[in-house]
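Record type: monomer structure entry
Structure origin: computed from sequence
Chain ID: A
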Amino acid sequence: MSDDPEKIVWKGGPSQIVNLPAFLASALVAMVFIVVGPQFSAIQNYIMLGAVIPLSWAGWKWLVVRCHRFEVTTERLRMMQGVLNRNVDELELYRVKDSRVLQPLWLRLFGLGHVVLETSDRSHPKATLNAIKDPRQVGEILRREVEALREKKRVREIDFDEVGDSEFGGEVN
């Protein structure tokens, strides 16, 4: 077995398109404050200051998505998220059982989609890379790296259904 160093094969994160509803709502609310403010000259400055609240909320939503990152290496998938507190979850690639690429219409318009991984990992039985660019290409990269790592580590997976039958047809006792 070779001791090749772990290499990054893909890096990315969710698109800010996932924040589109929040951005539109905060812009609308901020505009209401800005339009209504001049109507009340005595408290105009306070009303105009109210526009800062939805804009701050939109800024926070932007920052949360900006700090969410995915990294695929030759051995694992790292999912990093958090603005103030950082969480790094790692999923060993040889534990990936299946993958799906989902491209809802509104994301497909922007060339985005989700890659959903079914795994045998207890902490991440289903891992999702949300709203990423070129999801089919990323899914293919993941599939290739999963197969290469399974071959390298000589890992095989056998599934058992609810009644105890193996995929080989005989009942296991």
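Annotation 1: The two ends are 34 Å apart (CA to CA).
Annotation 2: Helices lie at 20-36, 44-49, 52-66, 105-108, 135-153.
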